[in-house]
Automatic annotation (TrEMBL):
SMART domains: ANK (SM00248), DEATH (SM00005). The keyword Zinc does not apply. It comes from Haemonchus placei. The keyword Ribosomal protein does not apply. ANK repeats lie at residues 127-156, 198-230, 231-263, 264-296. GO terms for biological process: signal transduction. This is Death domain-containing protein. Keywords: ANK repeat. Residues 321-409 form the Death domain. PANTHER family: FYVE-TYPE DOMAIN-CONTAINING PROTEIN (PTHR24118:SF100), POTE ANKYRIN DOMAIN (PTHR24118).
Amino acid sequence: MSTKRSSILSIIIYFHEWFQLFTFTVPTLPFTQDRSVQLTLRSQALHISIPFTYRTSSSTSRFECLAEFAATGEISSLIVPFAGHIGERDGEGNTVLHISAKNSQSFALKLLLSAPLPRVTNGVLITALHCAVRAGDPDSVHYLLSHGSGTRVLDNHKNSVTNLVIHYLADAYNEAIFKEILETPGSSENELDALNEEGFSALHLAVRRLKLSLIELLLEAGASINAKDSAGRSPLFHAVNMNDVEIVQFLLGKGADPNVEDDSGETPLLLCMKTANYAIMGLLIDAGADPNRKNRNGNSLSDSDDATVQRIIAGERRSITDDISCLDYLTRLRLSKLMDENSKWQQLAAELGCSHMIELISICSDDSSPTMILLDQFEQMPEAKISRVRSALHTLREEESVKLIDDRFIY
């Protein structure tokens, strides 16, 4: 008989009118070439030598796997001869899974995952899933999660995969990876509010990077809108500091506290006075921020001797402009989500007298919102007014879209 390394060998022996089954693992032997050996079984009543061939090479096995691939087209057959090496590591402790994930080789990773795998980390406690997230490869992330890779394994910075994904996405947003991780059983809402080494949660980072779509997803996933960073500042503070009217408006609409104080006694209103953003100042007051409320240092907005600040406190706001160029990005984004669905943007284009643009927009909108492109093109036309867009939407009975225009913030 012959056997390959680490084989399970079963032998039935007939001895004095009885049969005995012996099952055991053939050990790995220090041979570099195939060799004929004797297997000896010895006891008080038994002494038997069994000849067999110990095979060190797997040439036959490799051919059989190649033949199986040739016959079935099942490419996973090609990895079988190398399955024993998948758990081996390079000088940095990386397995071939880590290497595939780091280099965004999702096809190679999928092939390797067809073999039984150990769940291992490298020398700095990084799993292949950590690597796939850092590489921004949604396919690799999907394959690893589908094969049971855990999201709670911690790296050397004590980041779980979920936590790592969220903070990485705040820098390099990848919606596919974000959704894949959050929809994985075991992901925790608590991890959404965890602070990184700089003292920011994922929502703080998303606001600081001005990534509105990520902000929306984080809030939908359960991130706390009033979560504080290491300095006691909520995401609203960072939006005010970034002078981004649309994100301020969005956060307030989602319930952000306009009267919150940070650890130094700063409030969004007082911060607004420092940045001289009067549009945001008016927006905060309209949302309930109290200009007469004194902070822990005894300061309030009403103490300001700035005439513009006093007029805003008294209720003055900027006048409404009907030019389509004044339609803010947030409203455009929300309109696009509604009108892109079922190609309703084409009906809007027809109502706006832009039927001639439909074919070109359809060609150009593979990776973009056709509604966004339509609004950009409509802006170049004479008499491009917000009121015309509203009227067209009303004619189409798109009342939710009409409400978006009516409720938008004017600045």
